Structure formats: C-alpha cells, structure tokens
Description:
39% of the residues lie in helices and 17% in strands. The protein is an alpha/beta fold.
Amino acid sequence: MKIDLVTIFPGILEGPFKESMIKRAVDRNLVEINLVDLRQYTHDRHRQVDDTPYGGGCGMILKPEPLFEAVEDLKNKTAANRTRVILLTPQGHKFNQQMARQLSGEEHLIMICGRYEGVDERVRSGIVDIELSIGDYVLTGGEIAAAVVVDAVVRLLPGFISEEAAANESFSEPLLEHPHYTRPPEYRDMKVPDVLLSGNHGEIEKWRRQQSLKRTYERRPDLLEQAELSTEDMEYLENISKSNN
Ligand code: SAM
C-alpha cells in the first residue's frame, strides 16, 4: 500500500510514522508513506496555497489549483490500479473500524489535510472520493486526523498483527474486547480472576466472551444490535439485564 499525505505542514506528520510499529511496517515495505508538501505545487514567488473567501468572512481557504495539481501528479506517479482520494473534514463520514478495514484493502490512498477554514468546495466535488471525520469536534488541521486514519488502516494490513489479534480486538465483531491482565497475579489487593490462572482454555474463552458481552452492554449497548449473538450469548445478556433491574 502507498499513502500520500498532502499537507502544508509536513513537519507535523514526521513524528507519528517514525516510531514503533508503524515504522516497522514502513521498514518491512508493508506500506510506503509519503509526506507531500502542497507548496511544491504552487507557481508564484510566495508559494501561496490559500486565499480569502469569496463573499467575505473570516479565515483563509486552501486554493483549488495546488490541490488539483498535487492529486493529478500523485495519481500519475503510482503504478496502483486504483487510487482513493480522502479529504479529512469534520463534515465527513465518521471514521470507524469497518472503514479502516475497507481502506486497508486499497492500493493507493491520497489524504488531503485541510487547514484554516478548509478547502475550496471544488476540491471536494472535483477530486475527492471519500470525506472522513475522526469525530464531532474541530481540529486546527487535518494532519492529526490523517495520522489517526493511517494508524488504524496500517495496523490492519496483512502481516502487521496476527489474524487472531485483529479478529479479537474491540469493534472487530462488533463488540468491545474483554479485559486483559498480566503479571503479577496480585497487586495492591487486586487479584487476577482465578479462571485466567486455571489453564482451562475452554473456561478462559467462555469468560472472555462473557466479559466482552458485559463490557459492550455496559458501555456501548448500541453495538449489540449489530453483533451476531448465539443463544448462549443472549441468555447471558438477559441475566445481566435482570440482575441490573
Ligand atoms: N471550517 C470548517 C468547518 O466548519 O467544517 C473547519 C475547518 S478546520 C478548522 C481545519 C481543517 O482541519 C479541516 O479542513 C480538516 O481538514 C481538519 N479537521 C478539523 N476537524 C476535523 C475532524 N473532526 N476530522 C477530520 N478533519 C478535521
């Protein structure tokens, strides 16, 4: 997979991909991540990427010409069969694990990071395939939002984490994941549940499933509507519900 991040502040994105597991994915050629300075697609002395809004009002708008040229150039440079152009915007679809999974199957992503009041509307209608928001709040720019999306997508690339780990984690089902414990078995009077020390894999799996259901019921009951539940799961949830009433 190749990911091009188009930004006027590439420095903001230098850190997140140079550490830990994303760096390893880059080093192992699972993904190529390029920071693309939008100013290299300007033709004036001041390398102007923004301008005032038509109709007046505060703030600046990213101009269409450098963004169109950047996207066209990056598309021309790739050998990928298909490119998806993503605009980070608080007005986009709210990003989730399912979208991360879909995007992890793409060959080439171009992510446009907005700034100031955002981008000229012709960018959105002319060259963007997907508009993504990372939540209902407004950031100063799209770089951190893009880093969130890249992180979530890259860790789903084949070979990044084991299939088993990816299948068990929160939202994969969609259920929240069960709690985890590590050594020591007792810390400040807080004990690891006996079942996890029992070595009984059947009982451990059952406990994990039930904890996952309980967590989801308590914290994100909306997810249960989409989850595939067995008769045993339903009985367990009914019992929790009864004991809460
Ligand atoms: N005026 C815009 C509006 O009201 O929709 C907000 C612009 S915001 C200050 C500047 C840039 O930050 C946006 O163009 C976008 O790229 C990015 N941004 C801000 N919040 C975001 C969010 N929740 N998700 C994704 N990108 C966001």
